[in-house]
Predict the structure.
Amino acid sequence: MIDQPEAVAPVHRVPVTLIPFEMVAARAGLGRTTIYAGIAAKTFPGPVKVGKRSLWVESEVDRWIAARIAERDMGSNVGSRNAA
């Protein structure tokens, strides 16, 4: 019988920067309740647990912001009320 390797999460080849909630909220211009509602609805990037802390992948937050800008520029109302 051949041993199967354990499934492992893919390794990022580029540096990943993790940022705390305060930076996420400031960048997104949203409050705690709205951010966590967006995470629950799968419309806002979720955090990564590092020990007891929750940190966000900076590039994921940046992509979320860029998507809101793209929606605005395309005249879309998608996410206008519940953007998170």
Observations:
- Strands lie at 18-20, 48-50, 53-57.
